[in-house]
Write a structure and sequence with these properties.
The chain is of the alpha/beta class. 44% of the residues lie in helices and 15% in strands. It has a domain at 2-143: NAD(P)-binding Rossmann-like Domain (Rossmann fold, 3-Layer(aba) Sandwich). It is built from 15 helices and 12 strands. The strands form 2 sheets. The protein has a 7-stranded parallel β-sheet with strand order 4-3-2-1-5-6-7, sandwiched between helices. A 5-stranded mixed β-sheet has the order 11-10-8-9-12, covered by helices on one side. The longest helix has 21 residues, at 360-380. The structure holds NADPH dihydro-nicotinamide-adenine-dinucleotide phosphate and magnesium ion (MG). Magnesium ion binds next to helix 7. Residues 145-147, 217 line the site of magnesium ion.
């Protein structure tokens, strides 16, 4: 039996993880969860899964929940750390959204446990901190972002990445795949949240619509697989069936396929020696039309920025991530137009940022400064 700590339990990934655990109760136990303030979803989780420990980020909510059961509820950075490093936690799922996930990924990377990583922002903003720490402490990071999990599966059985020629990361293209940036001026928040293939949290859904998600994923892949950005190609695959492709030096290309359902990569990552079963929608191979198209050329500037982040590392990813988070939040709050998301990133991105030592404190500082800068850019659009 493995004890799972699910960080970000009330979200979309959290729901998929709980689905896999429910179908594998003889091997997986939900020992603890964390969330911010979605109390109604939390009550459903409590009724069905009754985790022993519940970390609540929102202090007022914590206080009100705590009055009923003191032992169960936790709040504050120290308690969060104590929960993550508990001896009886075997697997940590990092599924908080956004930069807020960095502090948990940072603590988890030092534990020597198995981490299931969904929170790409922690790697983009803090890759130069998290990956070396995980290596030093023998912490096993298994990606559950579907593309990275696909790459991970395509690489298993190989001797590292020595024989890899290239890796193709697929992108659904989101709801606006056939529109140019110019045509996106008037899209509404509702249009942008209407993803054709995946049902996800709002931040990652907007990232998917702008294709910034793929740029974040390029940076995530560069860190997770420790390969130069030149190995990675981005390609549009509207059906979201092939989740990524690894091409070897002998000409073989290996891909991982499934219906677009996050429980598939999650089940793979939760398994130990053998695969674990889930109910899933079969692919009908006799009736499968798969297509691919080039990553749109009018998004090459944003891809170039991501490639620069891959090449230079340090705080560049912190800046890129923070600028994007402010831009997406401002779009969701209807302060800027959809295509101004790119402008906020371009005008905030500072490739000459001084590279001091990368520590959790310095990353937090650069993140905070960048947010202030990006907010000023947002105001300039008003
Ligand atoms: P959601 O917005 O659906 O859920 C986010 C979770 O994080 C919720 O439990 C939320 O709590 C919690 N949370 C948010 N802010 C904080 C905070 N400050 N402190 C503590 N907890 C917080 O996001 P998703 O599940 O869609 O995405 C989670 C991560 O996984 C993201 O990094 C995303 O990029 C990545 N990912 C998601 C995919 C998907 O299919 N959804 C696919 C691949 C990657 P509350 O509900 O209380 O606000
Ligand atoms: Mg993905």
């Amino acid at each position: 039996m493995k004890n799972v700590l699910l960080l970000g339990a009330t979200g979309s990934i959290g729901k998929s993880v709980l689905g896999v655990i429910s179908q594998n109760k003889e091997s997986l136990n939900l020992i603890g969860i964390s969330f911010n303030k979605n109390v109604s979803r939390y009550q459903e989780i409590l009724e069905k899964h009754s985790p022993d420990y519940v970390y609540v980020e929102d202090h007022d909510l914590f206080k009100s929940l705590c009055s009923k059961n003191k032992e169960r509820y936790l709040n504050g950075d120290e308690e969060l750390e104590k929960l993550i490093i508990r001896d009886d936690v075997d697997i940590i799922v990092c599924a908080t959204s956004g930069f807020a996930g960095l502090k948990t990924a940072y603590i988890a990377s030092k534990t020597g446990k198995k981490i299931l990583l969904a929170n790409k922002e922690s790697i983009v903003a803090g890759g130069d901190l998290i990956l070396p720490l995980a290596k030093e402490n023998n912490t096993k990071i298994i990606p559950i972002d579907s593309e990275h999990n696909a790459i991970f599966q395509c690489l298993s059985g190989e001797k590292g990445t020595e024989d890899v020629k290239s890796i193709t990361i697929t992108a659904s293209g989101g709801p606006f795949i056939n529109a140019s940036i110019k045509e996106l001026q008037h899209v509404t928040v509702e249009d942008a949240l209407n993803h054709p293939n995946w049902k996800m949290g709002s931040k990652v859904t907007i990232d998917s619509a702008t294709l910034v998600n793929k740029c974040l994923e390029l940076i995530e892949a560069r860190y997770l697989f420790d390969l130069d950005e030149k190995y990675f190609d981005l390609v549009i695959h509207p059906q979201s069936i092939i989740h990524s492709i690894v091409t070897y030096i002998d000409g073989s290309s290996i891909c991982q396929m499934s219906s677009p359902d996050m429980r598939v990569p999650i089940a793979h990552a939760l398994s130990e020696v053998n695969r674990i079963p889930i109910e899933f929608k079969d692919l009908d191979f006799s009736n499968l039309n798969l297509s691919f198209q080039e990553f749109p050329s009018d998004r090459s500037k944003i891809q170039d920025i991501a490639r620069e982040v891959c090449n230079k590392g340090g705080f560049l990813g912190t800046v890129f991530n923070a600028a994007n988070e402010i831009a997406v939040e401002s779009f969701l709050n209807k302060k800027i137009k959809f295509n101004e998301i790119y402008e906020v990133i371009y005008r905030t991105f500072d490739k000459n940022i001084v590279s001091n030592e990368v520590t959790i404190e310095s990353i937090n500082e650069v993140d905070a400064q960048t947010r202030i800068h990006a907010q000023k850019v947002v105001k300039s659009f008003a």
